[in-house]
Amino acid sequence: MDVDPSPRRSSLSSIVPIFFVDGFSGSPVPSFPTTMVTGGAPSSTRRMEHRPLAPLKGSSTTSTRLWVGGDHQQQQRQRRRQERLESSELEGMKQQRQSKKGGNQSYAGYHDGRKQRRNYGYFDDKGHRNKKISKWNTKKKKKKGSSWKGGGNRGGGYYGQQQPGTRGKSSSSFAAARAFNTKLTKCQSTSELLTAFMEQTSSSSSSDNDDTGGTSAPKSTAATHLAGANKANSVNFSTCLHRLARFANNNNNNNSNNNNNNGDAVDERKRVLSDPRFALLVCSMAEMAAGCDPTISIVEGNTIMGGYNGGVKQRKEDIVDVVDELEEADDVLNAIAGVTTRQQRGTNDEADSRSIDNEESAESIMARLKAPGGKNAFSSRECSNVCWALAKLRMAPPGTALPVGRVVTSIDEGEEEDDDPDDGSGEEGGRDGPSSSSSSSGRSFSSADEMSLDVISSSLEVRMRLFEEARNRKNGLRASDGGWIPELSRLAGKVMDLVAIRTVDEYAARTTNVAATTGGAQFNPQEMASVLWAFAKAKRGDGALFDAVAEELMRQTEFELGRGGQGPKPQELSNTIWAFATAGIRGDTQVELVKFMADALDEGRGQFFGFQFKPQELSNTAWALATLHSRRNTDLTDTDARRVREDDGMVRVLRWVAKSLAERVDSFKPQELSNSIWAFSTVGFGYDEACGTNNHNDYVHLATDDPSGDKELVFETLEVIAENALPRLDRFKAQELNNMAWGFARLGHRSERTEKLFAGVAKEMIRRTWQFKPQDVGTTLWSFATAEYIDLEAFRAGVSRLNFRQIRSFKPQEMSNTLWALATAGFGPEHWGAFDTTLVPASKRPTKQMISNDPITECFAAVASETMRRPYDFKDQELKDVLWSFSKIGVRHPALFQKMAKHIVGRNGRGFSSFSSQGLGNTLWSFAKQAQLSLEVIEMLGDDVKLVSTGRLAVYETSCLDNGEDVIKRLFVRAAEAGIDMGLARFTNQDLSNTVWAYSTMGMLHSGFFKEAENEVINRLRSKKSKFRGQEIANILWSYATLNAQPEMAMVDALSSFVVSECHGDEYSIARMFGQRQELANLAWSCAVLGRYPKELMDILYTGLVGTGNDPEQMKRVFNDDGLQKSSIMTLYYVQVAADVEAPDLGLSLPIRFPNGWGEDEGRHQAKGDENDLIQMSSSMLTLTVSRLQRDVSGTFDRIGFDNILEHVIDTNEIKDQYGIQLPHSPKEFLSIDIANINKQIGIEVDGPGHFVRLIDNPGNKLSTRSSLKHQFDDRGENRVNGPTILKHRLLTHLGWDIIHLPYWEYQGLGGDKDQEMDYCQNLLDQTPKW
Questions:
Q1: Is 238 strand, coil or helix?
Q2: What's the DSSP call for residue 944?
Q3: Is the dihedral of CA 1064, 1069, 1072, 1075 positive or negative?
Q4: Can you tell me the distance from the alpha carbon of 947 to that of 242, in angstroms, rounded to the nearest whole number?
Q5: pLDDT tens across 931-954, in order?
């Protein structure tokens, strides 16, 4: 739920068959300067490239001897004096002072917070300060220093230091490099910059003249030699890549902002990556980063690499051909740049004489490839700039495509570990420290040298492909469409890995070296943040790198503050935390970083070491904290102690974010507002629990020591935001609107201002629907539904995007969110029977054109079609939400549900093991509800329905027709088993309620699951740790009663005690707990079925149903309904009869003349009642049908002399007069007997399938063929008599009837043999005393 301000990314699919481009992530990108980092912490608006360039930074503070023939010191001094006299630009002349040993040395330190440079240009030959230059220098604009007093970059400047491996190049090389850098900063396009690079590194460049003035040596170019052939240095490479990244990003930004894009719009990033000159540039940079000697030719390098197993092998007989190819490639590449190529070339005979050793070690190979001195040529600034550029260009593949490479030191079994961390392979190899940690899925190396060889190997591979491309172009052959780009991408990733391992090793050494600990940093805070940003963006970060950098940042802060220095700036720490969140790296260091930030803010009263956070820095920080917190569930190493520390730090930071929002909301841009609100809602900071939790999402609540204070703070902040955002909603992007609406809805913020804000968002959605992307549509409508903001026009506008033409552009979550919102808001399809192929005839279903005319119907149709097409793309919750939405809104779709049932429990199905308790319960509820909806279809269509059954049997039969009996049974069995395995302690009260309701509605009982649920309910009620809602209690007890699940009476007593404790005996307190009177009726009926009548509970139920004042209109107002439903009234008759006979001491009674005329005086009684009566009913509440089996059985009993009538009805007057049971005077028929002999009061109940429960957990009883009255209610195979049948039998028995139950399968099993049927019926009669 976050916003990425960067432009949409373009694909390289037209160029490369394999490429690594991350899609739109939706995460906010911190505001890094778009200029190259060249010192300190410059602001994002400063043009750093045009600054005077400092001396070239080396990687060591020791002397490096210049390998020039003769008196090299004298030659160098003469050249420098000559340059100073000839140069007219003193600002760029900062060269180093010669050491006593005759080498160049660079030193940059800090003293009392003021930077002091000891460069050659500031001193005369005797070592005294050159006053003229010093005086001139003081007049210059003072260079902005590092934010660290006493920190800074190790090694110092840029151009004055001798670069390793130059082998006798004079200072004119550095002057050329300086001039080249100035030229680069003036380039205004990709083509111009790459052309400048080719000109600089071509054979026509004058910078490669040797010091002796000879002409016999071969001329080198970037195409023929490694590491730029001494024509460019690390600063040049850094500047090139940085500016290319800027060009690509700026151009794409311009294109994305242009609403009139046409075919001429150029994807600059695509142009950069597909240009072979860019590939040559990256190869040269990578080779320099690996430490290659720039005087080594490609042929030499390839020959040396022949001994490396991972390298590019080259046979001796191919070397001459390679030399020719290199010369041809140089010509073609130079021709691309428009550079004149020198025709005179030398040859390198040394290549033929070099031997190839296939078993040569990495260390020995690198020793032959390394430049003299063996140090890293790139400074910290250049490393950060290179990584930033590679990430900005999205070149490096993510760690999932190319595993992250790290050095792992392994010790052979039985071999003693060397105490010396240096194994002799060089300064950077063989260390066992933080850098040694690597995931098992990463690429492991034994040393940094081996990693360097891996980089060089990829670089040579890219070069070989470039040479092939160049040769093809020269010969007029078809281009390869960037065939080198996949390997170039891998090369970029390997370069970043090499930077990472060197950084980790450097910081690991500093933690064990006291002298290093008190010195300057390798990276300053801005560079640290830039490096971590790059690795996070490229998805190549790991815990070792991020922890090392974060620990160094905090160590430096402590060191600098201890000496009175300055801490990091807000942007630097904000970007660092952002990088941790983007990379998904959690751990102790990350928690300490959050606490470090919180402590600094608390100490500074909202300021960070004297600096105030900018709005974007605050919003990025809030986004990062929320993202890190939301990933807790995937962090298996989390501990309670760590979570407590993290929560404490996050809460304190978010409080300052909220306060800043309230105080200066006008300075926050729309994206910053929406991201901040998103962060609050993601972690539940300031959540208003009074609004309850929404079952559609699992809510997270950040632990806080002041929940009421935080809720008040967030409420006030959101009120300010709502008022401020409303008049400028037209400036919000669609994603920003949906993020803001989502945050308000999820936080449960309800107010008049919020209502106006949602109305404004709805208007924007209607006005510019086309701007709302699929995610925006789903989330915004979800927010409306959750906040109970109902606007039909806005919903129709949003769902108009989910049509058959565009549905495939929607992700599963976006589809499920949209359907969930429609169902929750109550907006269903206009054509409710459009998809019911089981019950609704084709002539009654709408055409496709009719479906398309209603956007909501088309939305449901399109989502169902897409769900059936690719169910595996849907997560469990998304699949559950789609099914739930159809059932909730009352739309049957048999094809969808059958497909999903088979997808879940069919062969190779996904199963329920990964479902949450909510997902499992809601899925079963959805299937049961689909079957129950058949009753509504039957009522609406009557005889047109393709179904013969009614009542409970119709529900089960419909489900079997929809899904197949075997499939639906298997679905409910697997769900019960998954629930038991999961543990019912993980089920919420509503999850338990939904699940048992689904089983009872379907008439299926899993005894094992119901026993576990019973124990869980009792434990929760007794412990009083869980509060049930009235509906949940009613559904749970009703389910057990309906299925005749035979619970312990302890559960009834526990439920009763809980209801009594929550209700105070008056109608209003009852209405607060039970939303509908149907729930009260169900609870009373359940007590009657179970034969348990807790007095206090029954009093509460009767008070809630019929009140105490004999006033039906008052009860309508209390419950906000239209009166009791027909089913509730019939239920009350059953309960009254049972209670009056089985618990007469309760003294329960129904109002006089109930239900007709209820509430009127006796004298005003009317036979029919008037319009104010509670409900008008006919004399019969029964719907009687006679089945064919019932008629057949009746005929058989006639043949054996048992006189009978079909469907004998018993009314309330008969019960009242004959049995003295307290019932209203109005005659109502509510009991019937299938086959009855009235004189002897013997009744025959022909029990069809609707009278039985299906036992689905491996029943042990065999199906009997002949029943006895004594055991007629025992389980028989998969069948158990259900609760309604049990209650009816008891009521008739209390009225003096002997009831014989005839199971349908026993009679049908006789096969129609008349004699056997007569014998069977006679045997049943013989068992009753009355016969």
A1: helix
A2: G
A3: positive
A4: 73
A5: 999 999 988 888 787 776 777 888
